Input
Amino acid sequence: MENKLPFIVRFHRWRLRHLSERRFVVILSVVIGIIAGLAATVIKNAVWLTERLVHTLTTGNNVEHYSYFVLPIIGIFVAVLIVNYVVKSPVRHGIPNVLHSLSMRQGELSRHNLFSSVLTSAFTVGFGGSVGLEGPTVATGAAYGSWISRMLRLSYKNTILMLACAAAGAMAAIFKAPIAAIVFAVEVIMIDLTVFSLVPLLLASSSAVLTSYFFMGQDVLYPFSVETSFEMSDLPYYILLGIFAGLVSAYFTKMYLNVENVFEGIQSKWTRLAIGGAGLGALIFFFPSLYGEGYEAINMCLKGDLTYLYNNSLFFNFQGQYWSVFMLLAAVVILKIIATTLTFGAGGIGGIFAPTLFMGVNTGMLFAQFVNFTGIKQLSINNFALIGMAGLIAGVLQAPLTGIFLIADISGGYKLFVPLMIVATFAYLTVKAFTPNSVYHLQLAKRKELMTHDKDLNIIRMMEVKKLLETDFVILRPDSTLRDLTDAISKAHRNLFPIVDEEGYLKGMVKMDDVRHLIFRQELYDKVHVSHLMYLPEHSISTTDSMEQVVNKFESSGRYNLAVIDKGKYIGFISRARVFSFYRKKMADFSHE
Output
């Protein structure tokens, strides 16, 4: 008989008999880490193959420079076609999409995320879109984590943990930075680092990076040799670099949002493609270093080789002139985020990690070159270029620990750990003075959809007004008499009676305590109408109210029951006791301990 049951049911029964919940979660974390590593491998190789194809088609035919103008538009156009005619559903930006699913969808991601980010990012980045691959990789890994969690019917707390494992695994695999990936899961994905979650995160991150090593080798992403160690005399300049990186990060965030808002006001996707594609093409035509992820440019900058600023550009003949170095470094720092946002606005799919690293390395280089030019101090341009990346990660993502460990991991630059800490800290403090949330979190926070490390607030936000409704109240009409009210009291187990007209509009309420002295006066039964006894509630709730608003109304009103009214129509009541009961249940579901 059991053999006729669906496989998933038989598996659940076997698992419950042989595996504890914690052991099962540990095994799943390894599986999800391997899947995230495979996703990173597939995305990286898909982009590499696309880039090789593009390079083959454009090299040696005297159109290579002019191709910078049209190639990104072609790639984004293909991505838009895939979204509209294959996926047939919006493909949202990777990490914000994961954060939204955690806060508003109980960790559920749409099925198309299993493949859509891979396809669309391969064409976007492979044809030169000015974005990175970490966002699509995290989205893909998280989609598999979500799918496995739904298939295995995991609880909410374990679903959250699996998505965090997938995100950490994706970051570990694509950057080959396992420690930074765990820090990223804590700081950006905002999972609580508890004893329960630590082991699965470690296993997911390590299994993902081992998978990446197996398919893509063990070389660090940005090889770096520390030739000049930290000197105390450089301390003021690292502090200044941190402040400068914080200001650039604030510019990054403000410009990203401003350009994004412009594109949100354009209804036609083809108009967005035309405007964004043309703008992106023009920027890359004049500044070819903005093309693609910027991986090669970052490595060249870390070696002190600034020829990437001039290669295939109109400024090629100005090499060796100091003023042109300052001008081009400042230009690529200012314009990279515009190019990135134009890529997104046109319909391209990618991430902002790579653009942030690109801006960071150029910010550090610009700062060091300027100080050296003044003759005040001779700084190591290589060190400052490297540490500038940590400053921008700390500022743009508002994740200083991620900035510190990511740059140390991907470069092997742990000998510069102290200046990494200094720059990341000052960048974070500076950007906080201008914007309270990172690029990833700003829109979600604006819509009050952002999960934070405040567990109480997260649980309240996960509760919904519609699921707390109580409708077992006896309804009376405005023309009902005291006799009708007395009859309702004899049958009801509530002490509140909503007065609603034929069209459903709430006219008032009657509280039993207010009529207790009348219910035994039978001579008044047919003379007194409830319209003479009712009162209009001072406080009420709408179904569109957030649970934060509901909690605040309970606190400010002191009431134990609040009417739920939509556009004047009676819906039901919410009681303080029901809210508390649901809160305790959610707390049990949410907590790992």
